[in-house]
Structure formats: structure tokens, C-alpha cells
Design brief:
single chain, alpha/beta, Rossmann fold, two-stranded parallel sheet
Length: 512
């Protein structure tokens, strides 16, 4: 229990009451978690005053068009139907960039934010494991410093929610809901990345990271210390989500907008292009549905925002994860996925859902060569002969790179404590339980991953539900063809064995 929950909450307002009339500033609002956070706030706390999203122009598309495109996503269907006008009247953008000094804000926009904002959600991050240290440092580390500088100037700040990750301390096990010693001096790291040339930094990166597997977790760990230096000075909570995956219930079951986590594995396997995965089948990965994580973020902002900041206040850490309450192994995900794909197959399947998990690098690389590379070369050759664009080998290269990046997490086991996170939900007022209580242990895994696969068809692959019967017919044909090929293969193998000199001499000896 943190000091925030260890107090009398009898006269504390409900979450919608607390948010009434509040102004929110949010980074990462166009990311996966940011989209669901924005939707949930507008849906369940509709009486808030307004939300400012930090947005940057992207590939020639200005922020106005990005905001309009954001609202057109299926993620906001429920909001459009049940809270019409809420988004248009309450969501505004300010042009900027978390990787820039001062967040790239104009003087006018900065003045607007510091004068009006009550709650800050810092969700933006570079989540790519292979980003160069300089890139990751600018967004994850310097961006957090710039958020803190903005928060210091914000006149009526009641809460700052900083989103980190449970994997920011993978050099430890178990991992508790506390702040661990820094892996390096964050100011020195910033100075190195700002003053030394890219080539030199890239050469030194692996040595500089030490025990950490990539620049993402390294910079996220340092960013927590940027935040923690404001203990007793700013009203802050640190949220560490684990691997955030498809929604459980809100805004609709199975909503997702990326291939991260198990959904990417299930899609690749369902398409028939993933036949081997390098992983420890017994490792239990920690996954958290995105709407469960978002309810936790909002609850944490409420518990911090309803307490007046005092100089002795600590900064609580919440592990937004399933921990031991709902574990699933890599092998179980594979087996569940194969059953689901057989019922909800994907369009254009080239092989039945299958494949296997290999913990031996030699066996895995052999399978990659025989089951990924060679078939890809064959299919691409046929496509080239037909005058069509080759693509399969390129896809296999991406799958291989993704598996290499994830291997560190698929072959090691960590134990995350989530006592603070679970205790927080028990402090919710009765009136808030329907909208903000988050389930972890009662989630039916088979039903959840079924919805995840259906969501992947709809939202990632843009496949239509009405095409599902045709996909099932194709899948049955592919399955039949797969059985025929296997029967022919084993028949030929048996024939070859029976015709071999050894077997023939053995038969002659037995006969005589």
C-alpha cells in the first residue's frame, strides 16, 4: 500500500467528479495506449473541460488532419455513437515534438498549457528496441526532462502520470514496485548523446548499456530518475505497464493497432508464414489488456490528484501487469492460437496455422532456412515469373528480425510484483467500480485471445467479417492439401527406406 491509499477516502470525489472541469495535457495521444486513454476519458469523464494533445506533423500531414484522422478510427466508434460531439468540442492539439527542446512548443502554446492544465499524462515513448541510443535518448529521456520542466511551470498541476515499463529493470528478479538505483547518470547520458557524433555513440552503445538488452529499457530506466528527483516537489505517479496488448472490453473487445506481443505471432502463424519461433516454451510472459492498463492510469491520477502535495510525499510506483494472477506460457499461446485460427482463419492463408517453438538455436536456424527462407524463395520466384511483386522473403526477413529482438524476453523469466496496482483498485469508490475497476485474474484467456484474433482481422489486416466463410473454405482446402503433401512425403520416405540396400538385405536374411 502506498501513502496515497493509506488515508481516509470517505470525502474524496468520484473519478468523474474529480475530472469535472479539468484540463488535461497528454503526450503520446496518437499511440496505442494514448488512443484508448483519450477515448476512455471522453467516454467516462465527459464533463472534463478539455484535452490538449501534443502532436507533430507527420510525413507532410499537418496536426489538424492528423486529429481528424484520429477521430475517424474504429477505436472511437463507441464515442461517436454514445457521446456525439464530445471529441470535437473537447479535444485540441498543440503542435510540438517530445524529442525537441521545450517539447517544440511555441511560446503562445506553452503559456496556454502552463496556465490551464491540471493533469498531465506523459505516455509518449520510443518503443523500438533497435533505435540508436541517440534517438531513444532524445524521446524517452530528454522528452521526460522537458515534461518535468513544463510541469514545474504549470500553475495548477494536480497530477503528473509518467508511463514507464515493468521491463525497465530486467537486470533484477524479482522486480518490485520501487525505484532501483540508476544504471548511469542521466545528465551525463544526455550530454554524451547531444555532443558526441552518431558514429561514435553507436560504437560505444553496447558497452554503455551494460546489462540492459536495448536502448528502450535503458532510457526508460533513466527517465524514471528524472521524474523521481521531483519527489515532494511535484505530484507524480509512475506507472509501469508490462506488454500492453488487445483490449479486453473497451472501447470494443479485441481492439488493437499494432502487431506487438502475441497478436503478431498469431497473425504470422495464421497466415502460414511463421513456422518456427526461437523461445523457451515454458516462459510465462506478462501481458496486460490495454483497457485494463488505462483504467489503472486513470485510477492512479485520481488517487494522486485528490491529495494535496506535501514536501514529504514519495512518488508511488504501480506495476500495471498481470503478475501471478493470470499467467500464460509461450507454448500455451501457440496452442491456443492454432485452435482459434482454425475457427477464425485469415484471408489468403498459404499454409495451415502451425509451426513450433525451438529453444535450441541450431534447430531454430535450421528450421528458418528450410521452412522460412527456401519456401519464400520459391514463392517469390513464382511471383516474379508471373510478373507480380515479390514480397515473401522481405516478410520473412522482418519476422526473423522481430524474433531476434524479442528473443531476450522470450527466453528469460521475470517475476513482477503488482501489490500496489491491485491494492489501488480496492480503494475505488463504489460508484466508480463499474467504469474503472480493472479485472486481471478473471479474464478468460481463450475468449480473450479469440477476440484478439478477430480484432487483428478487422483492425490490422482490414479483413471483412463477411469474408470469413470464404476464408474458412480456403483454410479447409489448405489443410487438406497439407495432409496430402504430408502423406505423399511419408509414403515416399517409406518407399525409399524399403528400397534401400540395408532393408533389402535384412528382408533377404529374414526370408532365408
Amino acid at each position: 500500500m502506498t501513502f496515497l491509499e493509506d488515508r481516509d477516502l470517505e470525502d474524496v470525489p468520484t473519478i468523474p467528479e474529480y475530472y469535472r472541469g479539468k484540463t488535461i495535457f497528454m503526450t503520446g495521444g496518437t499511440g496505442f495506449m494514448g488512443k484508448v486513454l483519450l477515448e476512455k476519458l471522453l467516454y467516462s469523464c465527459t464533463d472534463l473541460d478539455r484535452i490538449y494533445l501534443l502532436m507533430r506533423p507527420k510525413k507532410g500531414v499537418n496536426p489538424e488532419n492528423r486529429l481528424a484522422a484520429l477521430y475517424n478510427l474504429p477505436c472511437y466508434d463507441r464515442l461517436r455513437n454514445e457521446r456525439p460531439g464530445a471529441f470535437e468540442s473537447k479535444v485540441f492539439f498543440v503542435a510540438g515534438d517530445c524529442s525537441e527542446l521545450g517539447l517544440g512548443l511555441s511560446d503562445e502554446d506553452r503559456t496556454l498549457i502552463v496556465n490551464r492544465t491540471n493533469i498531465i499524462f506523459h505516455v509518449a515513448a520510443s518503443v523500438r528496441f533497435d533505435d540508436p541510443l541517440i534517438v531513444s535518448t532524445k524521446l524517452n529521456l530528454r522528452g521526460t526532462r522537458e515534461i518535468i520542466e513544463l510541469a514545474k511551470d504549470t500553475r495548477n498541476l494536480e497530477c503528473l502520470v509518467h508511463v514507464s515499463t515493468t521491463y525497465s529493470n530486467t537486470n533484477r528478479d524479482p522486480i518490485e514496485e520501487i525505484l532501483y538505483p540508476p544504471l548511469a547518470d542521466w545528465r551525463e547520458t544526455l550530454e554524451i548523446c547531444e555532443k558526441i557524433d552518431d558514429r561514435t555513440v553507436n560504437i560505444l552503445t553496447s558497452k554503455y548499456l551494460g546489462e540492459m538488452p536495448n536502448t528502450y529499457v535503458f532510457t526508460k530506466q533513466l527517465a524514471e530518475h528524472v521524474v523521481y528527483e521531483q519527489k515532494g516537489k511535484l505530484p507524480i505517479v509512475i506507472i509501469r505497464p508490462s506488454v500492453v496488448i488487445s483490449s479486453y472490453k473497451e472501447p470494443t473487445p479485441g481492439w488493437i493497432d499494432n502487431f506487438n506481443g502475441p497478436v503478431g505471432i498469431l497473425v504470422a502463424s495464421g497466415k502460414g508464414i511463421l513456422r518456427t519461433l526461437y523461445a523457451n516454451p515454458e516462459v510465462t510472459a506478462d501481458y496486460i489488456p490495454v483497457d485494463v492498463a488505462i483504467r489503472g492510469l486513470i485510477a492512479a491520477s485520481w488517487i494522486r490528484g485528490t491529495k494535496k502535495l506535501e514536501p514529504l510525499d514519495d512518488i508511488p510506483v504501480y506495476h500495471c501487469c498481470a503478475s501471478s494472477l493470470n499467467q500464460i506460457s509461450v507454448d500455451e499461446i501457440f496452442n491456443i492460437g492454432h485452435k482459434i485460427i482454425a475457427t477464425y482463419p485469415l484471408d489468403g492463408t498459404i499454409m495451415i496455422a502451425g509451426g513450433s517453438i525451438s529453444y535450441s538455436k541450431f534447430i531454430h536456424f535450421t528450421k528458418v532456412l528450410l521452412l522460412h527462407v527456401l519456401p519464400a524463395l520459391l514463392i517469390d520466384s513464382l511471383l516474379w515469373l508471373c510478373g507480380k511483386k515479390t514480397m515473401v522473403l522481405k516478410i520473412q526477413r522482418r519476422i526473423y528480425s522481430a524474433n531476434c529482438a524479442l528473443a531476450y524476453y522470450l527466453t528469460q523469466q521475470w517475476s513482477f510484483s503488482n501489490k500496489n496496482f491491485i491494492n489501488l483498485r480496492s480503494k475505488l469508490l463504489k460508484e466508480d467500480e463499474e467504469q474503472f475497476y480493472y479485472e486481471v485474474e478473471d479474464i478468460d484467456r481463450f475468449n480473450f485471445y479469440t477476440n484478439s484474433c478477430i480484432g487483428a482481422r478487422r483492425y490490422l489486416l482490414k479483413e471483412k467479417d463477411e469474408d470469413l466463410p470464404a476464408a474458412r473454405v480456403l483454410y479447409k482446402r489448405v489443410a487438406f492439401f497439407d495432409k496430402v503433401v504430408k502423406c505423399l512425403f511419408y509414403a515416399c520416405l517409406l518407399w525409399w527406406v524399403l528400397r534401400s540396400d540395408f532393408v533389402q538385405s535384412l528382408i533377404d536374411n529374414v526370408s532365408s
